[in-house]
């Protein structure tokens, strides 16, 4: 059976996608940290389950390995209270202001 699409093209597309994600995440890292900080600030007690972040991973632009990567690098911003609970280390007054207050 002859396929209309060359299998090597699938590999190239996957490779390009992985390369794109690898290059894009560091550029957006601070934006990602800001988004997660804002979510933690509006949460009831400043904590969220990692599972909840996994469910919103695409909408937030989080990388697949955000638990180890983002939470590990930014340990001065986030801390793991439990294996699956993320807490905000420090409240950011600038993020806490409403735009109307500015």
TrEMBL record:
Domain PORR stretches: 24-101
Classification via InterPro entries: PORR_domain, PORR_fam
Pfam family, one: PORR
Top-rank taxon: Eukaryota
Molecular function GO labels: RNA binding
PANTHER family listed in its UniProt record: PROTEIN WHAT'S THIS FACTOR 1 HOMOLOG, CHLOROPLASTIC, UBIQUITIN CARBOXYL-TERMINAL HYDROLASE FAMILY PROTEIN
Listed name of the protein: PORR domain-containing protein
Organism encoding this protein: Vicia faba (Broad bean)
């Amino acid at each position: 059976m002859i396929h209309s699409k060359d299998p090597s093209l699938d590999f190239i597309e996957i490779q390009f996608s992985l390369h794109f994600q690898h290059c894009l995440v560091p550029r957006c890292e601070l934006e990602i940290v800001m988004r997660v900080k804002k979510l933690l600030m509006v949460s009831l007690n400043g904590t969220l389950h990692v599972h909840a972040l996994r469910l919103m991973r695409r909408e937030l632009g989080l990388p697949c390995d955000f638990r180890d990567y983002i939470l590990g690098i930014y340990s001065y911003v986030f801390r793991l209270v439990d294996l699956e609970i993320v807490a905000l280390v420090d409240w950011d007054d600038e993020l806490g202001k409403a735009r109307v207050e500015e």
